[in-house]
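seq as requested:
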Amino acid sequence: MAFILGAYGKLMAGQLCRDLQRQQMRVQSDLRRVTKQIAQMDKMFKSQQRSMENALRGQMMMQKQFMNMNTSSMQAMIKPSINDFDQKAVDKYSNYQMAKMYADLKQPSAEDTAALADYNKMMEKVKKSLGMDPQKYIDQYNEEAIKDMKEASESAQSRINSANTEAQAALTMFQSNMQNEQANAAMQQQMIQAQIQDYFETQREMLLEPLNDLEADLQAEKDNLESRYAIAQAEYEAQKKQEQAGAKDMASNYNYGQG
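struct tokens:
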């Protein structure tokens, strides 16, 4: 009886082992396929996201370069509107003041050769700048002419200062506008960057998470089948031993009967 039970139990356990092996092969095949799909899809998403982010950075870099070029051009264009006559009036009185200052300088004595040499060099530069000796430059203007020249210089300097102030105000306003545009561009870049990340996060949730769940289910099924197979294999070996023990008992009884 033990032989029959062992043989039958071995048969059933062997059948179960073969069934479990077939199921394991199917699950392993499905698991490899799903794992490969996940890796390929994740790689595709990363590549697409990286391309979009690189394109965004390139676009923002070009925009920044354009802004910098525009700023340089505008800074070169925004200059004070100064009339040549005003500048000449200021320069004329400035030259007169310089001539008067150097004409009033006392010439060093001949004994002080070093100081005299420095004085002569300085006076040569002044003569070259004025086009004549400082005293002669002063002598060409009478008191009334000097007064008119001073008033013309002050009036011209006032207009020059006003032009400089207006140009500086225009430049300051332009720079402020450019800073605002750069801040807006940086904020826009951050918003688009966030949108890209949100888009791919949504894509992963829609397409990758179901595959991840399927992978987890297949892995759990694979682990379960391996556990069941180990139990079935152990049962097969136990039934096999019972069959062998039963066969020995039958052979022993048969020999005993023959004797």
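DSSP finds five helices and no strands in the chain.
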